[in-house]
């Protein structure tokens, strides 16, 4: 007992010290970001208060407007290829300096960002809501929490995963040290979508900057207004830690701008559609840079008969209706066991009928507007195709007080039954507030239906038996799986995120995403330098000895023989060969 007491006391003291350290406020400076031109104080000038009439033509300007009200927000330049290359060049110069920064400096940058985000949640969510039409609650869930969690994970574990990782050296290299080093790639390029304008910028930026890179991000033309403001937060935080200017850049434009970015950077991360993703791949092949593609999904939501139906129905509604279907990897196909099909549908109908869509900042609405122009027409096309093939709409939510100019920006939440896989609604990504519900009879059928898709991003499986839910999820061909939950993976930022098939490949987030921003270098060096050095054995030195191959054969037996006796016999033979005076093969040929 006397032996354990000192250890117990030391452990207790260590715990008390850690607790006291947590109580001491951290020395994180506050930053002041200019918000004068983004705050809506109700006193809008004529230039930014009129209703915007969308143009069908791309111009030299990216016009910005609030999708929920169609109020004009302003414009940003559509950068030309030479302007993009200039921005990348500036970032490259900054990266050479930042690559030498310490992890202490990088962590301080993250702490400053985290402090600002926590203290300005309302501002960040408000701007996201105005630019994309989502509600404040949806912005908080998808923008704030995920980003804060990513920062926290990087602060806790980021340095550990970027330090050299030592590996086994193998039998033949026992005198060596083997390790993997992770160094920055240079300038990372990212082309991101509009659905989460804050997180879609911060997600690749945090990984790139923490691993020593610069990054240039092309934001969507549908979310440029918010993206350019969020850049101010990043640049102000970087300046606070003495980082070089131009380390992080946000650029605006259309396809030409994105193409120029792909051809200029050292890695490209793309979040968007499969069609554009394939074009990115073709462009990236010219310079042979690594590519990460996240191309959306058609996630399956499987409900077994042994679940708490009302609870799961609430999760299903959230998965389908969040931000008018703006949620990345949203649930888009619902497969419900026949024994609970009717009760589940009834619960979902009750929920959807209580949902009201409307301008998210002008009232208490459950759902916001659709961000992209003309997307409601696309959704209606998918619904009409399903109706023509026998589907039935059994419930729709309501739409609140909408201005005349913004009517087309809303699509009421819709529940559809009698669906099947011949319908485009069950095969093509909808990105909208639609719940198509289909019944199944067995777990095997549920798996077959869920895998019958060209997409493979995520899935959610619900069962009263966690083992059963886990077994079903393990058979689904996708990159992200939630067991008895939906989208919980996003809050586990230690996990990689990405899909298969038309959902793309490569991973961001987690260790895999962090290291994907690095040049992965294998390094081998002498373990006991300079006392033991690599020396080529005499029999295989040039000119190679007559018994050179016999030496190699014995060496292989010694190292990898199937049992200890074979290896010992081979070792004896090896030592015998080494003790003999070698006869070069060239001398043997001359003697012959």
Automatic annotation (TrEMBL):
Residues 1-30 form the signal peptide. The keyword Cell wall biogenesis/degradation does not apply. The active site is at 294. Residues 59-523 form the Aldehyde dehydrogenase domain. One of its GO terms (molecular function) is oxidoreductase activity, acting on the aldehyde or oxo group of donors, NAD or NADP as acceptor. Keywords: Oxidoreductase, Signal. InterPro entries: Ald_DH/histidinol_DH (IPR016161), Ald_DH_C (IPR016163), Ald_DH_CS_CYS (IPR016160), Ald_DH_CS_GLU (IPR029510), Ald_DH_N (IPR016162), Aldehyde_DH_dom (IPR015590). Pfam families: Aldedh (PF00171). Belongs to the aldehyde dehydrogenase family. PANTHER family: ALDEHYDE DEHYDROGENASE-RELATED. This is Aldehyde dehydrogenase 22A1. The lineage of its organism: Eukaryota, Viridiplantae, Streptophyta, Embryophyta, Tracheophyta.
